[in-house]
Please model this.
Amino acid sequence: VQLVESGGGSVQPGGSLRLSCDASGYTYSSNCMGWFRQAPGKEREGVAFVYFGGGITYYADSVKGQFTISRDNAKNTVYLQMNSLKPEDTAVYYCVRDLAVYGINWFFHYWGQGTQVTVSS
Model:
């Protein structure tokens, strides 16, 4: 069972992309799904997360108002709509699911392979 990401690619600044993460191979809905990204030479960054039911979302300050996360529980799929893309959004984007929290520590159990997003003129 794996997370299957799609929708990455190359786009000019100001453009849009929509990432999809298909978790249909899992037999249960996740408590939390979302996206991380990692640019070359930079630390991995949590971009956006959506909790079960889709009512609660979290966005990194760097993408607030620019990215929108959503999930379709029936399809076990999460989406990341990315608008007004900037060169600094260039990174490998990873889909994640199943948040585990132990006190102040937290992690996601499952990660996708990653999809490249390149924003360049």
About this structure: The chain has no helices and eleven strands. Residues 9 and 117 are 5 Å apart (CA to CA). The mean pLDDT is 93. The radius of gyration is 14 Å.
